[in-house]
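re: ur question from yesterday

yeah so i grabbed the chain u mentioned. its 234 aa long if i counted rite. heres the sequnce exactly as i have it in my notes:
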Amino acid sequence: MINDPLKIAIKGSTQDHLPIEDIVNDMVLLKDGSCAVIMRLSSVNFDLLSEREQSSLVYAYGGILNSLNFPIQIMIKSTTKDVGVYLKNLIVAEQKQTNKLLRERIVSYRKFVEETVKRNDVLSKTFYIVVKFSTLELGIKSAGKQSFKEIFSLNKTGGGQLPFPKEYILEKAKESLAPKKDHLIRLFLRLGLDIQALTNKELIEMFYGIYNENVAQNQKLQNTNFTNPIVMTK
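ran it thru and got these structure tokens back, copy pasting raw so excuse formatting
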């Protein structure tokens, strides 16, 4: 029996406190047995549209929501944008520009960007649609209530063992989620929006950035072999 508290602490794992069991087959498997596909959605600069275009877009978007017969979650992730590379490119363009007037315009624009960054944080917003496979669909009455909103907001809650074998859950989840995913892609393409389901690699990188927000920008993932499970419990 181990009595040393330090050794007991070392045996613990951060993954024991994460709600994610595994990321496989382009799906996120939670510890309560539920699964989800996460789709990244492009955006539209609404303010640049005419009043008629804005009304049409709102009406079409409302039609999409009213036509769905399954729930979705819409997530917006805001991150601080690093414009350092962009400013360096402007300096290079300024040095290469032979036209005096254009060079002055580039200098003026670069200074404007620098002043804007000093006054305000430049945020980059990414939009996601989450389609979830509930444990209710596995016939579990006491289904977990784990929400992907809680996962995105860093609710590090552990869980118990999966209610069924992993392979069985993934098979059922794929049967349920695949047609829903394809349906959403068709609907949003009609609005002229690009929508794509995240792959294993993209899901891992996204959650790495969420759970390691302070270091993710400077410390990238070293493991590039995404064919093996990254998040798993014993």
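noticed a couple things. The CA atoms of residues 94 and 106 lie 6 Å apart. also DSSP finds seven helices and six strands in the chain.
anyway ttyl
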